Amino acid sequence: MSEVVLVTGGSGFIGSHTCLELLDHGYDIVVLDDYSNSSPIALDRVRELSGRQFVAYTGDIRDQPLLNRIFELHRFAAVVHFAAKKAVAESVRIPLDYYSINVTGTVALLEAMMRHDVQRLVFSSSCSIYGDAPGGPLDESAPAMPTNPYARSKWMCEQILMDACYRHDGLSVAALRYFNPIGAHASGLLGEEPLGEPSNLLPYLTQAAARRRPPVTVFGADYDTVDGTGVRDYIHVEDVASGHRAALGRNDIQGFLRLNLGTGVGTSVLQLIRQFEAATGLTVPFTIGPRRPGDVDALVADAGLASEMWGWHSTRTVADACRDAWAFALANPAGYTDRAMAGP
User: Fold this and answer.
1) What share of the chain is helix, strand, coil (3-state, %, to 5)?
2) pLDDT tens for each residue of 268-287
């Protein structure tokens, strides 16, 4: 019998790709999402691509009665927890929302797991926890130096999960600190389509290239980097999804484990724009703006531990991600609403 996995936030960018990855590798899934920054159409695409059906519940991760009903109706082998708010600049504007949803939501989920004897959790953590940590690439021993409420909320969740593992001997948690997921599924059916203005660079870039948005604003050109713009470790979303599957496939995780998922290669904002232009043949208009609060110079992963422990490593390039993201934009010129409006 296949293992049944609860995926919270499963209609989001990383969540939907992970759902497809799990279905394609024999898992059964149940999804919980409130669609506050995603579309249920993404789950329809997951069903279409996988050729499989699954149950999806609509609701807030903090809703304890709803969580209890879901856990009573399904016998879960594990949980993959994506449900959270995730934009750095927004977290500076509305920090209490981030602590409420990200931290309180994780506690509510953990309590439901304990009540129903579910002992395995894969947690969506973040490289932003490293903040302004010196040096790089950064391995898991680098100090936590979060610089914004989003990053602090993820760090708080990790502390809570560590304490829970210390208290509950059978609980195993893999906190995956992935760097900057970009790209889309190679089919063009599944990609990053946030509601409203994208907070991440590549989806905004594709929408600007498709003339759905004004020119891209490059936030800050005075960082201590190769060209003055922020440097990040951009990793293809399908590689991130495979990392979650790798975590679920390990039965030897005892207690709390944190692992980086990244490529080990840093790419500046201007370099990403140039790679997108090279992959698509387009010219992307952009302007230089001021820094955003909470941003840091560079974040690049040392993902050697994931390779050593699980044999996981990234297999796709930034160029692949740019190509796939543009294919998704071309196939969905108005986002996920296209086919919903047109019908089957």
Assistant:
1) 40, 15, 40
2) 999 999 999 999 998 888 99
Largest CA distance in the chain: 55
234 noted as active-site residue:
no
Q: How far is CA 10 from the centre of its chain?
A: 10
Name the burial class of residue 65, with classes exposed (0-12), middle (13-18) and buried (19+) by CB atoms within 10 angstroms of its CB: exposed
Give residue-wise pLDDT tens across range 157-184. 999 999 999 999 899 999 999 999 999 9
Distance, C-alpha 51 to centroid of its chain: 24
pTM of the model: 0.93
Strands (E), 204-291: 216-219, 231-232, 234-236, 255-261, 267-268, 286-289
Range of the domain at 211: 4-342
Contact call for residues 140 and 305 (beta carbons, < 8 A): yes
Catalytic residue among 57, 99, 150, 178: 150
DSSP string computed for 79-115: EEE--S---HHHHHH-HHHHIIIIIIHHHHHHHHHHH
- Strands 78-81 and 55-58, sheet pairing: unpaired
- Determine which helix (DSSP H) or strand (DSSP E) holds 331, and give its type and residue range: helix 318-331
Rounded to whole angstroms, how far apart are CA atoms 216 and 286? 4
Calpha distance 242→253 (Å, rounded): 17
Structurally, how many domains does the chain consist of? 1
- Max avg pLDDT among 115-129, 183-197, 297-311: 115-129
Q: Identify the CATH number of the domain in which residue 316 sits.
A: 3.40.50.720
271 secondary structure, DSSP code: H
Q: State the Cα–Cα distance between residues 277 and 95, nearest whole angstrom.
A: 35
Q: Tell me whether residue 166 is exposed, middle or buried, using C-beta atoms within 10 angstroms of its C-beta: 0 to 12, 13 to 18, 19 or more.
A: exposed
